[in-house]
Design brief:
The complex is a heterodimer of chains A (266) and B (259). Chain A has 2 domains: 39 residues, no CATH class; 204 residues, MetI-like fold. In chain A, 77% of the residues lie in helices and 0% in strands. Chain A is built from 10 helices and no strands. Classes of the chains: A mainly alpha (266), B alpha/beta (259). At the A-B interface, helix 7 and helix 8 of A face helix 2 and helix 4 of B.
Amino acid sequence: MNPGLTARTRRPAFLPNWPARLAWLALITYAFYAASILDVTWERFVTGLDNGMRFIARMFPPDTGAAKLQLLAKGLYESIEMAIIASALGILLSLPIGLLAARNLMPAWVTWPMRLFIALCRSFHQVIIAIIFVKAVGFGALAGILALTVASIGFIGKLFAEAIEEISLKQVEAIRATGAPFMSVIAYGVLPQVLTRFVGFATYQVDSNLRNSTMVGIVGAGGIGGTMFAAFQRFDFDFLLTILLAIIAVIMVSEMLQNQIKKLYQ
Amino acid sequence: MAGIPAAAPATIEVRGLTKEYRRGTPVLRGISIAFPDRGITAVIGPSGTGKSTLIRCINRLVEPTSGQILFHGADLVQLSRKALREHRRRIGMVFQEYNLVERLSVMENVLSGRLGYLPSWKAFLRRYPPQDIAMAWDLLETVGLTPQANQRADALSGGQRQRVGIARAVMQQPDILLADEPTSSLDPKTSVEIMELLVSITDTRHIPVIVNIHNVPLAKRFASHVIGMAGGAIVYDGPPDGLTDDHLNQIYGGEDWQE
């Protein structure tokens, strides 16, 4: 060691963050404890792998009988319709709701109830909301559409409000100074600053709605989910594989479309 | 310039204007002043002395604590929101950091000066009257940015952005222009060009300009009237020639900064 390095020059550059270290230690300890309580063991996992392989083997080859394909097309088409309607509704409703929830533009007595509403929309998983709507409006696509719309508001509304809260108020101020009415201030001072991000959230939500629209059918809210659940219960695993492959194809096509849409709004 | 009538000379008079951001610590201490109705009036003074607050109180981007601001026979301080909007469109404003809408085109930024005259739905659909569009093209020609009309504002240099900012303010067909440190973010050469543009606007369109500026040589060179501020009060009000070193010491304090 260089003798010139005294105790003073070897002083550490960074202070140890003891609270953070303790928090990490506590988290890891608790994870092990919880795993032991819940009977999470390596042996069970290995046995499970074996079962899983047998299950997957039974899925091949995928069932492509004409009657099954027709059933698949009908369910999948309904799912896509549900996703698109719910996304359109959700996006349209999120615009004003997100705007009203932005704390830098609105007084507290407006933002507070709006933020509460958004939080409520976000509280439950789509499937749970779907169960409620199935009870309310009966089985079918309508319940699914409503459930997905609520979820969309929870997601886009929150992110949109946060995006607005991050805008530059200088641009807003300049538009206000021209004597523009409030809606024009929004159209020129606020929207241009958040439009690309909003398109990003919206396309992500379309994607999310597509995936979730294949789920809500399990509780009877329309779409391919019902068909899929029935195939499960009838041990119709080869048809199940057909459905899963079709869903993957739809998601990939939607991904490509999303990228094109985002390019339009760069 | 075709299509733009010379605005009638209008003046702004401030009486006993006080602004406290926090109670008990006034930034403006009862300022009273009648701004000239022509030419460039430079408001000089050190940072934090209330120049910006004064100019922002005039169009109420900052709410005055007390006092009167008389413009077109009305007290701006007392106006309702709607009446305030109607008066605001007669007051153009140019900002230190240009405050353009970065993601809109130069043309959209210039046209946004007409927003006070246009219903929101028309503004949203970009349905401006033909005479507004003709005026915007003329103004872009005046500020030398015709080729950039369809570029996005964030693609421009600082000097170009400030020209757009000035074009937007003049688009309002204002009776008065407020400029809050319009050259402070620019290099010396561009600063002079921007001041020359303001002079040509006040001369050809007969719009009085009130400009906050901390650069004393620039103020002396281009202003026809100078107001010196220190500690939230006015300490000089007169022609640029009458501004002595004593005045400057009083405004900026000390002498070391002078050559």
